[in-house]
Each structure stands twice: as structure tokens, then as C-alpha cells.
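Researcher: I'm preparing a figure for a lab meeting and need a structural model of a single chain. I don't have an experimental structure, so a prediction will have to do for now. The sequence is pasted below. Please return the structure as C-alpha cells so I can convert it later.
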Amino acid sequence: MYVAGKTDIGRIRNENQDNFKIELFENQAALAIVCDGMGGAVFGREASEIAAKAIYDRISASFRLDMGNNSLRNLLLTSVNAANSLVYKKSEVSSEKNGMGTTCVVAIVRDNICFIASAGDSRAYIIDNNGITQVTNDHTYVSMLLKQGKITKEEIKQHKMRNVITKAIGTERDVDVDYFEVDLKPESYALLCSDGLTNYCSDELIHDYVTNKEINESAEDLIKYVNTHGGKDNITIAIIKN
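Model: Understood. Here is the structure written out cell by cell.
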């Protein structure tokens, strides 16, 4: 099992508000976390830093290779909820911090299963030789409109409210975190990323880069692709190879 991650400021932004954490547990399980801050440059960065560290610290301290699936699920959810409380409390310190928050997607791969928790529009994909599947839901206003049939997929990128997040870590006292368990095939991948990647790359392109390269090279080359084609946002990728 292998895990790799990379973040980049992009070509336009003055500060990187993304954060990621990765960890390999005795070459038998892997953890990846991607957070994309919101609420202004300084406070978005602070929110993503707090959340990524809180989740990483809690999981690293409590994870065991022999823990049951339900215990692992509870560990993921309690870790994300603990991060939510920390960011929310920080947002209450002053009025200028009101609204600070971060997207969050977390994955643990163990025993050919990918356990995922998410809030926001940072995504988790499962990739294998047969294709690529987005597991997580985009918690955005335009995604809600799409599900309601009020806009088409093609209209999303041009919609004036495309950047409005409907669920995130730290913006409310409590957060309803999405949770998924996905069976993995041998030689498959879990890819986590911020929207700085997915706004520029098709699913097919991501699949081709990941399946035809080593994972460190895949992350680096995907970021190079984004920066070559605009790079208007921070870009963060974490990849676990099963």
C-alpha cells in the first residue's frame, strides 16, 4: 500500500488555504485528509489547518489495524465532528472570523475497503482499470439546483452562485457529515482533492494520470496540468494506492 499527497498555491491566489495530511499504518492501512478553507485568506487557511490537524491527531492516536468496521466509522465521524467544534469555537472569537470554515474529505483504506467522511465540495474518487467513480456528494448550491432539475451540468461552471457551499466544517455548531464505505479491487486507488483540481480536470483525465503513473508523479503532473490551464485556485491532491 502507498500514499502520496501534494498541495500547490496555483497561479493566481496569494495564499494557499488548502491543507492535507497523509499517513501509512504499518503498510497495511492508509489515511488521507484534504481540507479547503473558506472565509477569507487568513481565516480560511486557519480553518483548514485546525481541521486537518485535529482529524489527523485524533485518528493517529486511536486507529488500530484490528478495529472493527463500525469502530472505524465512529472514529472517522467523531474526528470530523471534533474538528467542526474546534473551528466553530475559533469563529466565535471575533466578528471578523464569523463564517470561517473549511471543506473536508477524509479516507482510510484497510482490508480492501475505503472508509470515507466528507463535508463540502472536496471530493473522493475511486479509480481502477475499469474507470473512475465520484463517491462523495458536492455540498454546493449549484449541486442542489442540479438535483432539482433547475439547471444542467453544463450550466454549473458559469452559474453566478457556483462557489456557494451548503455544508462545511466550522460554519455551524453541528454538522451532518456524509459517510461511505466502498469495496476496493486490488491495484485500485482512492483520490481525494480540492475543487482546485476538479474545476480544471475531467474525470477521464484524472483517471488516465493516476492509472498510468506512480502516485507521486500523478499528483505532481495533475497540478502541473491545472497550472498550465489557468490555476486560478489552490490545488490539493492525496492518493492512496490499495
